[in-house]
Amino acid sequence: MDKLNTSVSTSAFPHAPPREFGVLLQVLRKARRISQLDLASSVGTPSRHISFLETGRAQPTRSMIARLSDVMGLSHRDRNALMTAAGFAAMFRDRPLEAPEMAPTLAALRLILKRHDPYGAIAIDRTWDVIMASDAAAATIARVGQTASNVRAFELIAPPRPNTLHLLFHPDGLRKRLANWPVVASAVLRRVSYELAGAESADPRRAVLDQIKAYPGVSDLWDREPSSEILIPLVFRFAAKEIRLVSTIATLGTAQDLTLSEIKIEALHPADDATVALIAGQSSLDQILT
Question: Whole-angstrom Cα distance, residue 153 to residue 52?
Fold first, then answer.
């Protein structure tokens, strides 16, 4: 088995050519299973106008694009794509995390992540790469990932970054330690597939997913029935003992920057009192998994 590489380079994948506004609008609408009639009713325009926008017989105004985006619940990235496809300037800037003006946000991320040790928390970008990790999470990534030597707790991680999907799906990754890996992995696959609805074929996230699909046993997960559990825990077993954790995913509210709007914070929490007792007195989950 190849050594686990938890990083994926996205720079090698070209950006898709810009779509015409009408084509892109139709793709985004259908991906959300919204009819032309329902979309028209929600934005206060005749359904024929939506049809004309999608076929190119009518051109949208900037305010119309904003209303369509609100109704469809589009991400900052998709809103920008609609604007530029129609010939308007993008609504949101896309600044790199290394930019000086991002320093206050990175400081806030550190404070948030510190709250979640000893169980661990990470901040991830849109391609599921880890951009920052708490002390507990950094220790676990370093142990599981093997190649994540550039991960230092509470610091912005320089590319190439560990990728959470590779950490979960690689045969030498977390799947070796998760007792209920098929259940967790299939649930993650469904969530990832939903996130990719309507995405361009050259979207770098599709390349990540293609790599994940190539791992042994992953193709079998697509036909697996969804779990009946209300909340799926991550179950770690070691030395006849069991740790049960649940994860939460949060975003930065009111982010007016494209990069910031796509950052997610995934944190682990104990699912029962037994887990609290097992981890009590330990500096991190990594010590227990050793």
Answer: 52
Say which residue the tokens 């609100």 belong to. Answer: 70
Q: Using one digit for the tens of pLDDT, what is the confidence trace for 209-244? A: 999 999 999 999 988 888 888 899 999 987 778 899
> Which tokens sit at 205?
């996230």
Number of domains in the chain: 2
Task: Give the pairing type, strands 121-124 and 264-270.
Answer: antiparallel
Strands 130-133 and 241-251: unpaired
Measured CA distances, 217 to 50, 169, 186, 213, 266 (Å): 44, 9, 11, 8, 25
pLDDT attached to residue 12? 31
* Amino acid code (one letter) for 245: L
Of 281 and 178, which is predicted with more confidence? 178
| Nearest Cα residue to 148 out of 165, 135, 167, 134 | 167
Please tell me the distance from the alpha carbon of residue 218 to that of residue 96, in angstroms, as a whole number: 33
Residue 101 to residues 30, 91, 231, 263, Cα–Cα distance (Å): 37, 18, 38, 16
**Chosen domain end from 53, 85, 117:** 85
Domain that holds residue 154: 100-289
- Write down the pLDDT at residue 1: 46
Residue 93 lies in a domain: no
Residue 197: pLDDT band with limits 50, 70, 90: confident
Instruction: Decide if 4 is inside a domain.
Output: no
Same domain as 212, residue 156: yes
Burial of 106 (0-12, 13-18, 19+ CB in 10 A): middle
Q: Burial code of 180-216, b = ≥16 C-beta within 10 A, e = fewer?
A: bbebbbbbbbeeeeeeeebbbeebbbebbbebbeebe
Q: Which pLDDT score, from 0 to 100, does residue 262 have?
A: 95
